User: What shape does this take?
Amino acid sequence: MKISAFTYIRNGLDYFYPFLESIQSVLPIVDEAVVVVGDSTDGTREAILNLNSTKIKIVDSIWDMNLREGGKIFAQQSNLGFDAATGDWVIHVQADEVLHENDISRLKDYIIKFDKDPRVEGLLFPFLNFHGDYDHISTGRKSERFEVRAFRNNPLIRSYRDSQGFRKYTSQHAYLSGEKGTKLRVVKLDVPVYHYPFVRPPEIMKNKIAAFMSFYHDDQAMAGKSQYIQEFDYNEVHTLDVFTGTHPGVMLPTIQKKNWTFKYDPSKADISLRYRILNKIEALTGYRIGEYKNYKII
Assistant: This one.
């Protein structure tokens, strides 16, 4: 069996994405790692080449700004990487997602195991969403808990909406025509994804948010959000817990270079009474009422 990984990145150095660590974290268990590199101006492509791995296959791309709104460009870039992957199974790691060396051999075992079960189309991963620094994880209702990050190499599978999840479609034409697709049948794993979406120096965090939001909103909408971006506060988050585990080894050099201070102030959290009640129920039961699930667990 052949296993591929795929990801995409553009100007990853400027926006402090741990994309190099992300790529390195999956290399030990894959036969190839497809990296779609957008038209970067900060040395991102050169940094990937400097990893000096024969497993890495770069696909160069130019981002189409006509696909800016709604995150469509992310789906397009993700699909480019998936289409270039030649493995029987693929692992999708986004540029701020890293796997732990203690988990990857187990992940490979799972792929081999479930490859024998035709009912299983993909694998569902729990997420550890770091926020503010490397010592806090977001646990409120606004944080994603699970995502599909490995699946069979079926050309009818496409990125759904943006590249956060995936669905299966009746044809490529149907996908492009707006078919909703069907959710993948998946098995939930105990292999966490270490996700670093809000872990950057504050000024870079503002730049990253502005750039990211610009791929979901038009210029007029972005003008209305400029004050929010400039006044961004790490503490405007629902719930954070202290992280007591260990980070992936590839992240340690970056963590040691951290040069900002984050102090969690729960009094700044803007949580409605409804969300407070729902968070309490989830904390007591582990069940998230009304959770969005872009998958079918079997």
